Amino acid sequence: MADFNMTKNKYTMSVRDPSDRCSDFREVTLGYDEEAAISEAKRCIRCKTRPCVSGCPVGVDIPEFLSLVADGKFEEAYEVISGSNPLPAVTGRVCPQETQCEGKCTRGIKGEPVAIGCLERFVADYHREHGANVQEKPSPNGHRIAVVGSGPSGLACAGDLARLGYSVTLFEALHLAGGVLVYGIPEFRLPKDIVAFEIGRLRDLGVEVVTDAAVGRSVTVEELMGEFAFEAVYLATGAGLPRFMHIKGENSIGVFSANEYLTRINLMKAYTEGAATPVFPAKKVAVVGGGNVAMDAARCARRMGAEVTVVYRRGERELPARREEIGHAKEEGIIFRFLTNPVEILADETNAVCGLRCVEMKLGEEDASGRARPVAVEGSDFVLEADCVIMALGTSPNPLLARTMTGLKCGPHGEIVADETGRTSLQGVFAGGDAVTGSATVILAMGAGKRAAKSIDEYIRSK
Amino acid sequence: MHKILEKKKLAEGIIYMLFEAPMAARRARAGQFVILRVDEEGERIPLTIADSDAAAGTVAVIFQSVGATTMTLAEKEAGDTIADLLGPLGNPTETEGAKSVAVVGGGVGCAIAYPVAKAFARQGASVTSIIGARTKDLVILQEGFQAVSHRLYVTTDDGTMGEKGNVCIPLRRMLEAGERFDRVFTVGPLPMMKYVAEATRPYSIKTIASMNPIMVDGTGMCGCCRVTVGGEMKFACVDGPDFDAHLIDFDEAMGRLKTYSAFEKHARERHCNLFHKEVK
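^ Those are the sequences you sent over. The predicted structure of the assembly is below.
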């Protein structure tokens, strides 16, 4: 069946019109239909080197699933993906495919790469709507494991352990499970029904989900392994601590961390009419940063009716956000000020934000991260008018849990020290995801959760 | 879901509520707080723990119904349930080693001052309590304070009970008379705590204020509760809520509390209108 589709460009997924989508929080991209999916999957030429697989942090057998999609065998394709990726409906939407699978695709050399992300999303959505979704509950092996944190890493680890027969309890500090998938990533990029569906599947597998439990405060890890008789614990507490710039005026009224702004909107549904949780009524918002979180905050503020400017200290090429989000943000009328760095937040006599003093930057030599270091251009100060500033500068591991544990080795930024398999300095305590690496991606956190599940299984068996 | 086991009206608009909350009760200490949501659409609000019983699995809070959420909570009765209760959060108040302390509470802040006074008394400190309210009918927990305090002073703004004026008057008088405490703990409205800090500053008495800023998650994630202490940014939820009162930027904190005042006013009015409709 060498019936390949040699079209140079990928099949464009339909997207809602910017003028329409800016007034609500419904999903922006609409996905492929079956015909489009089959046609796009046929663009994969089954090259021998399979570079896409090496580009995937969890090693999904991409050519195999694409070949099944090309044959219209969508459920079989789902089986292939879900063997190595427990949340394909999520990663299909949020993975930075251009630097992973698609970035390595052979078709990308002359033309556009195969739209692997869109196809992954299609297969997962197809399965959610048409699949049997009956999961056989494995017979229990009698061992109890606690997973702390219900973000991508915790979900991946809990799922794999449950499938191996472990009795898994998943602890979440917030009132809703899902971690960054529910408090951080907006509805218009990742519908919350999808996250709820995936957590429902975990419950079907027998995973007990305990919300409103701040491990470290409500119950310590020592207590979990003592009186609560868990034989191992996986710490997947993420990188939730927001960073600030520590510039003058940062505590003025109208300055928010992206975490706060997004949590109010996504988790607390502050965008809905009559919501109990307030969101700051801003007219001119400046978002500082250039990652996915900055794009999310900017696009949320746009939907709340504000004029939004993204202020980023490097150039457009250096923006770390997914290309798709940058494109969507631009279509939605978000203004970008590249090579611009805030130096002071200006406030009026009531201490409310009235502007952002910035300097222009130029790119200098490469820094430790291999990116050009931005340097301030002397005398280039100017004031950007704004009544709200959102800081999207990245996050650090949340120190709450580590502070309450003795003997858990942590790094200089509060990150938990763990090896490749998730082992920490304490016996029976494993860790992974952003809590170990600092803020990274959903897929890397999931990969760490899967590896930890494997090593927890080995640890229990060898006991 | 958390069941309300008991509800008492302590004063006009000030309510005591006891919840079934075994997870929050197990490790709760004086000075810590909980975050609760009344219903599935509810806002997350922090309330300080007024009392807890690990064996019974219960946590009590005392709150003033001033906002839409506390007004909704105030309408609940014993036997009803609320959607969520997370805790204990924040660091417990440090009581170790203190021999002579003054506990200064204002308004509904007395609900927080009382368990702290009790904790100080329990570890052997001589406790001088000063509690203040606008008027006689708003004075709460007087008997409780009486039981755990070596001395108790009551002040009211209008002089209807105890001494007329604010809590700083008896505090300043004692300090001027040469009385020395090795610690002062204060909780209440921000301007009051600021004045308490100013009263003790000339005497270099270690003074701790319990901050109650706006919060969302209460676990260090949102940064909404940031307070400037000694020029450094601190998060009240994980670094506090207790801080050195001589180092807190109270003026900034007062400004930050007003962030959502327009929304809150609107929500309160909407709530009152809805409530009136239901009553009709």
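Chain A has a mean pLDDT of 94. The radius of gyration of chain A is 23 Å.

Shout if you want it in another format.
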